[in-house]
Structures are given as C-alpha cells and as structure tokens.
Design goal:
The complex is a heterodimer of chains A (624) and B (86).
Chain A: H1 4-7, E1 24-29, E2 67-72, H2 93-102, E3 106-111, E4 114-119, E5 127-132, E6 134-135, E7 138-140, H3 141-154, E8 158-161, E9 163-164, H4 174-184, E10 188-192, E11 210-216, E12 220-228, E13 233-237, E14 249-253, H5 266-269, H6 279-282, E15 286-289, H7 296-300, E16 305-309, E17 324-327, H8 329-341, E18 346-349, E19 353-356, E20 383-386, E21 390-393, E22 412-415, H9 418-435, H10 441-450, H11 464-467, H12 474-477, E23 482-483, H13 488-497, H14 502-509, E24 530-534, E25 540-550, E26 556-563, E27 568-573, E28 576-579, E29 585-594, E30 600-608, E31 613-622
Parallel strand pairs in A: 1-5, 1-8, 2-5, 8-10, 10-11, 11-20, 14-15, 15-16, 16-17, 24-31
Antiparallel strand pairs in A: 3-4, 6-7, 12-13, 12-18, 12-19, 14-18, 21-22, 23-25, 25-29, 26-28, 26-30, 27-29, 30-31
Helix pairs in contact in A: 2-9, 3-4
Chain B: E1 8-13, H1 22-37, H2 41-44, E2 45-49, E3 55-60, H3 62-69, E4 76-79, E5 82-85
Antiparallel strand pairs in B: 1-3, 1-4, 2-3
Classes of the chains: A alpha/beta (624), B alpha+beta (86).
Chain lengths: 624, 86
C-alpha cells in the first residue's frame, strides 16, 4: 500500500530486525500473481531453512525467494472455465492481500494515477507461502482445512485468511478448526471480521484463538464528482478511473426504464437489479439507481454510467465496470429531483480524485459488528485496521472491477473490505514476531489489542462492537509492557466451559485433558478484553481472574486506572502489580458489577508503569 | 431427494493428528469409511487431513453422515460450506 503504513507510523525508516526475512506468512486466498513487482526477490536472503513446504510450479507459475511456496486446493465440485488449476491468481484478491502483508517496495505504484507512491507491505522482507483455496465460485471448507493442514506442517509463522461465512459452532467451522491447530503449533491466524455491515451480531471468525480484524479508514479517500445539467456538483464515493470523453450524457432514473418485456416493473428497475433495466432505454445514458451495487447490471445494459444513492456505505470505496459514483441520501435525492424537474436531464461523472479523510479513523459501514453470536462473553471483532480504499498489487488476469466484461487490466488496484484490513494486522503480528520469535499467538494478539487506541465515539457509535480493542498501533504493539498470555490448556478450559465434554476434548488435544470446574461461560479465558451480556436494569456482578506476563522493564510497578460510567462498579485487586523480572507472571481479580439502562455501556482499565499503558476494553451489553 | 440418499460433501473432524505416518492415516480413514459405506469408501473419500490434525472429507448421504458421527474418535461431522472472500 502507498499510504496506510505511514498513517499507522510504520514508516519506511522504522526499526526492523534481520529476522523479518525469516518470517513466513501463509496466505489462504485466491492465489497470487507471481510476476507482480511487489513479489520480486532481489536482495532477499536464501529461503529460511525451517521452510518445509513446496511450490506447485508449472510452465506458467514459478516461485522465488519471495513467494517461497504455492499450492492450490480443490477437492469438491467442478471448476469454472475461468479457473485454472494452478496457484496463479485469476481474481486479483489474493495478490492484493499478499502484497498488503508482505509486498516489497515498488515505487510509483498507482491506479491510473490515483494513490501514487511507493507501495509496500507491512513486512517487506518477509516470505509468502500461497495456499489457493478460493475460486470463482467461492472457498470450500474442504479446501480451507486442507490448506491449514499443509501450512501448519510447512512451517509458516502467521496465517492470513481474508475469508469467511456465517459464524458457526467452533468444531463445525473450518477456519476455527484450522486456526485452533495452528495455535497449538504456535502460529497465529489473522482473519477478516466480515463485510456484513452494522447489523448487530454479524461478525465472523469469532473463535478466541483467532485475531478477527474489522476495517476502518485512514487519512486518504477518493471522491468522484458528478455534475448535473443544472450546473450543480456533488461529491460521491467510488474509484472511477474513466475520463469522461463526451462530457454530458443523458440522465435517466432506473425506476423509469424497467425491462417490461422481461417482466420487470419500476419496483425492480429503480434498484437497477439484474436484467431489470431496458437496455434500449438506457444505452449511452447515465442511470440513477436507488441502491449501491457492483454496477454489473447497469454495465451489461450498455449504460454510459451510473449514479447510486443509498442510506449506507458512503465508505465502500471500490471500482465499478463503468463510470460510477455513489451519493448519500441527501445528494441522491437532489439528483432525483433534478431528473424530475427538467425534460432533458444530463450529467457528467468525473474521474476520481484523492482527498484527505479528516474524520479518520472510523470503522467502515460495511465492517461486521459484534456481539459474538457463538460466545457472547468473548468480545469480537478484536481490533481494527485500514480497509477502505487500499491500493495494492493486482492480477492482470482479473478485470479491474472484478466484473466479467470489464476489459481494463491493471497491476495495482484500489479495494475496500475487511479482506484488506486483515493483512494489515497479519503484517503487524509478523513484525512483532520478527522481534520476539518465541512469543505465543496469544501474546502477540494481546500486544496488538492492549496497545490499540479506541476510536472517537461520535464517528463510531457502535464502539467496541465495531473496533474491538481499538485501532492497531504497530509501534506501540512492539513494546506492550505486559501481555495476557494463553496456551492450549487455557483454550481447552474455555471449550469445557462452552459445554464440550472430556471425550471430545481428548480427541482434539490428543492428550488426557479433563474438564475441570470453570468460572463463567468463557472459562475465565485469559484475554485482554471483556464482554458481559446482561439484561437491562438487572443488577449483575461478575468476577474474573486475569494473568499478565511482564515483557517490558525487568523491575517495574504498574498501577491500574479504571474508566467507567457511574452505572458500573469495577474493582481490581490488587491495584498495583510489582514485577522483579522479565517473564514474571502475576494475577489479579476483576469484579464488574452494576446495571445498564441502554443497549451498551463501555468501560476500560489500564495498567500503567509510566512507560507502558496496557489497556483492556470492557463492554456490558443488552443481550435480550 | 426425499429418500435422503443424496450425496453431499461432509468433513469428518477427528482432532489431533494420529501418531502414524501419513499413508497409514489415509488408510485408516478409508477403513473407517469402509465400515460404514462398504466398497464405495475409496470413491467417497475426497481428502485426508493427516499432517497437522486428523480428519477427512467424504461424499456421504445424510444417513451415512449420522453413522460416521457415532464412530469412536469423531469430534464432529459437518457439511462443506462455500465461504467468500471479504
């Protein structure tokens, strides 16, 4: 990416360790475009000795010292004609994701001049191992599990998976199962939290051993101006690479041009849904649609462009297969009224321009929100990172907009999604691991979470359910002071509390673990965050035990600072933790009591030694 | 079908990897399946997970799935889903 790493303070000059080039990131996605400049291997040392994986090379696919492994997985179902049996990326997504995490330095990267700069991944000298599990029809559980099975055995350090479905029981979920066994092998899995928007409880990849990443803005945005025939201009959102050749085009409202012959009425065509527009009436015209879409149906109807209006998604910055811009409700209404006010309405859609996003960071409207539908006592998502308008490498085999028939081919593309935020978090995790190779997945996850900063409540009304612990801070995460560590036995205790029996868990762990009596539904899992479902106006009191490990100064004294609204009483005992050595573990008790009179109440506590601030978010919410 | 004999892809998850070589693990999976579905086991088995955890993917009917789920060592049997990139 050309800007997001600088936005987060991970500049080109940042301190790096030579061990970064030993870090192997396993990317489970649509494959990779090996010719991309982002994956050149000049200057890289030989492949790390620990690597045990392989490369499915062929006449059109080879690995190098950057892409050190590549395999494809397809066990079930027929392949589409557009899919090739190779790790090669035909869709662009895997190339984009891999380059965000570990792409090398590429100067003058841009999309038709947009977002120009030096593109780089978060860990530019780390290696990439590609596991192609996603095809044009999606990503099968069967193949995802096969990729986890291989990646863990191959010796990857971090797994990045920008994929998901609806949240489901942990042992019926391929990503939860795969990441559990990754955790057992000291490999952290970073996963996208989903793009299901701001309906509560839609977050995916919710197991406690995984890092679930929400998507937020950074300080750059892309605006696409539309000028109506009356001379009024409106700034919309999209990534529009088209330069208007004719200037003004006739403007029509989708609801006025239904494809009656095919049985569609204005109630379908106003949303410009598939086949609903009469192509004879829209050919060469700009169509105003009442919904944000990918633009495919308007494109296929031979329209010259589209203006979309809707209540949400003003941050869903993405390219479309034809000139397009997205207006909010107010400006969209003005465009509609203009159409109704004149006999020959016209409009011009201009090429996108860059602008500074002044309200940043805020969580994208499309990013899936908590609470966690599988374990309501575990806060999800865990964290947020940039995922709006991200420029990164692209596969020239894939259309710029991802829509078939769009003949534009580019080497760098701008996309939005939790798919884009996930590899940002993956890279920061890899960055930490390059300094502290012995840290467990839970310790790395804790470092990311306790050093994250909460976002402005005005621009982020969903609070922790939108951003988890907060926005990722790579520099602070490198020096967290204390970490909330956990290992397999802690997660087994958690699973016992979730109701799994000893027989099941013995199979999962391969040992003689037994379920012991536990506290609460989360089994007092040693996480740095707290989620408490409750009923409104009902008094509650919960006790937790937490254990922190000193990774900061050998001799240090931390005192706790609590931030809570009057309706919550939070007690922490002891309130001072005195450490005398690195690696020392101390426990403390947390009592959270009170009642809530609204949907959600936020609080937090911070362990502070004067050098480190170790923050834990608390959210108490109405689960009814 | 209404007879419940439509074959779907299921994942049979069995936890930690077996402490045997990979070929033996696949053979064990085939044997397990053979015990439930007989000679169709070889064509039914789609993939053996054997390196980092234990399990397999197979084409099964609903009724066969229930029988597999009762086998010793099986943690879960669940239908293959198609997930999406985000």
């Amino acid at each position: 990416t050309t800007r997001s790493w600088d936005f987060m303070g991970l500049t080109q000059q940042v301190n790096r360790t030579a061990l970064e080039s030993d870090i192997i990131i396993g990317v489970l996605d649509t494959g990779i475009s090996p010719e991309s400049d982002s994956f050149r291997d000049q200057g890289l040392s030989p492949i790390p000795k620990k690597w045990k994986g392989s490369c499915q090379s062929s006449s059109n696919f080879t690995c190098n010292k950057k892409i050190i492994g590549a395999q494809y997985f397809r066990s079930a179902g027929f392949l589409d004609i557009n899919d090739v049996k190779s790790p090669r990326d035909e869709q662009g997504h895997g190339t984009h994701v891999a380059s965000i995490a570990a792409g090398g330095y590429v100067s003058n990267a841009n999309l038709t001049g947009l977002a120009n700069g030096t593109a780089r991944g978060g860990v530019p000298s780390a290696r990439i191992a590609v596991y192609k599990v996603c095809w044009s029809d999606g990503c099968n559980d069967v193949d995802i599990l096969a990729a986890f099975d291989e990646a863990i055995a191959d010796g990857v350090d971090i797994i990045s998976i920008s994929v998901g479905g609806a949240a489901t029981d942990y042992f019926q979920d391929s990503i939860a199962i795969g990441s559990f066994h990754a955790m057992k092998n000291r490999i952290l899995t970073s996963a996208s939290a989903g793009n299901s928007g701001n309906e509560p409880g839609r977050v995916t990849n919710v197991s406690p051993w995984i890092l679930s990443v929400a998507a937020s803005t950074y300080d750059r945005k892309f605006l696409t101006k539309v000028q109506l025939g009356n001379g009024l201009n409106y700034e919309g959102v999209s990534v529009n690479t088209f330069t208007s050749k004719k200037g003004k085009y006739p403007l029509v409202y989708g609801g006025d041009v239904p494809n009656v012959m095919a049985g569609f009425s204005k109630f379908d065509s106003r949303y410009c849904r598939k086949n609903s527009l009469d192509s004879k009436l829209v050919k060469g015209k700009i169509v105003l649609c009442d919904e944000l879409s990918n633009g495919e149906s308007v494109f296929l109807s031979s329209a010259a462009g589209t203006i979309m209006r809707d209540a949400e998604n003003r941050d869903n910055t993405k390219p479309f297969p034809l000139p397009a811009t997205f207006l909010g409700v107010d400006d969209g209404d003005k465009a509609f009224k203009y159409i109704r006010s004149t006999r020959n309405p016209t409009a011009t859609i201009f090429k996108s321009v860059e602008a500074v996003e002044k309200r940043t960071p805020y969580v994208a409207s499309f990013s899936s929100r908590g609470p966690n539908s599988i374990t309501p006592e575990i806060l999800k998502p865990d964290i947020t990172a940039p995922g709006v308008g991200i420029l990164a490498a692209w596969s020239p085999a894939a259309p710029l907009s991802g829509i078939n028939g769009d003949n534009r081919r580019v080497l760098y593309n701008i996309k939005s999604g939790t798919s884009m935020s996930c590899p940002h978090a993956t890279a920061v995790a890899a960055y930490i691991k390059s300094f502290f190779p012995s840290w467990s997945p839970a310790a790395i996850k804790s470092a990311l979470m306790t050093t994250a900063f909460p976002l402005n409540s005005t621009t982020n009304p969903d609070g922790e359910f939108a951003y988890g612990a907060g926005h990722i801070d790579p520099i602070k995460a490198l020096n967290p002071g204390l970490v909330y560590d956990a290992d397999e036995i802690d997660y087994v205790t958690f699973l016992c509390a979730q109701g799994y029996n000893t027989t099941t868990l013995r199979s999962v762990t391969g040992d003689n673990s037994t379920c012991k009596k536990t506290t609460g539904a989360s089994g007092d899992l040693n996480l740095p965050s707290f989620a408490i479902p409750t009923a409104p106006l009902q008094t509650f009191s919960h006790n937790f035990t937490r254990r922190v490990t000193n990774v900061g100064s050998p001799v240090s004294k931390y005192s706790v600072k609590i931030t809570a609204p009057p309706s919550l009483k939070i007690r922490i005992e002891p309130s001072i933790l005195s450490f005398t050595s690195i690696g020392q573990k101390l426990t403390f008790k947390v009592q959270i009591a009170g009642q809530i009179d609204r949907a959600k109440v936020s609080a937090s506590f911070v362990w502070d030694d004067g050098k480190h601030k170790v923050r834990s978010p608390i959210v108490v919410y109405d689960s009814s | 079908s209404h007879h419940g004999n439509t074959h779907k892809t299921y994942i049979v998850y069995m936890g930690d990897p077996l402490k045997v070589d990979h070929a033996s693990a696949s053979s064990l999976h085939r044997t397990m399946l053979h015990g439930v579905i007989g000679s169709k086991a070889s064509t039914s088995l789609l993939y053996s997970y054997r390196k980092s955890f234990n399990g397999f993917a197979a084409k099964l009917t609903e009724e066969e799935k229930h029988r597999v789920a009762k086998l010793e060592g099986v943690v879960s049997v669940f239908p293959n889903r198609k997930l999406q990139v985000h």
